[in-house]
Spore coat protein
Amino acid sequence: MNQSLTELEVENLRHIIGGHSTIATKLETYAEQCADPELKAMLQRDAQSARQARQQLLSFLG
């Protein structure tokens, strides 16, 4: 079954994708500035998770 997204759904999806991009960028910046190795690793993992979620969401636009 092939269901296409409505214009509103596509707009909302793009907004969410943009939010994940922003979050990943901010977390990477925080990780670069962090002196605590444990916190730095956590921020880097969270940034990677945000990038992966962004990629998964982009697949819905294809």
